[in-house]
């Protein structure tokens, strides 16, 4: 299977750091939410295309193709070692590139980000937020009118301000001087950075990017941090959810 290579400017994880993502996080219950969303927008009634941004090893794409025989999937990832793990499929294309530099791609009916947008990080916190908004705007342009964007994300609600954990976690994980410490504390993104948000913040970004009919589905609550760490990071609530939005017809 041919892998098309493109280049772009963005802070990327090392090959060693990406090994943790050689897995599949979307279980049967969460995939049902995807199916329900696509059915509600009548996406699956005719042949359609999906771009799986950060799709890595292609396990999600394979699941999707198995469910939808009328679908074609483009798996996009910046880590070549993950793309190499894809099984061959005539209805699956592979692109080796960050999403920020994708060009000359046909319009899609569906674009999906599975725990990927929080890895859109740049030189600082504000720059990372701007990069995420830019990515959503790019997705908007790449979708056909009536196309749908699906986003699985970890939502972090802070106290006393919802976005406080987002800022703190980014500053800690982006610091190269603290990388050894944050890595030992379990931060796989140590030295590069990660930029989580609350559900409300992501909804605002989607709206700003031009999407409408923005919906969300709760998947599950999570949190493996000690009470002390949650207090230090100003975390009030952690949960996983699916955001669904449409480009106006």
From TrEMBL:
Keyword Transferase listed: yes
Residue ranges annotated for the O-methyltransferase C-terminal domain, each copy included: 31-211
Keyword DNA damage among UniProt keywords: no
Alphabetized SUPFAM superfamilies for the sequence: S-adenosyl-L-methionine-dependent methyltransferases
A Gene Ontology molecular function term of the record: O-methyltransferase activity
InterPro entries: COMT_C, SAM-dependent_MTases_sf
GO BP terms, alphabetized: methylation
Lineage: superkingdom: Bacteria
Keywords: Methyltransferase, Transferase
Entry protein name: Methyltransferase
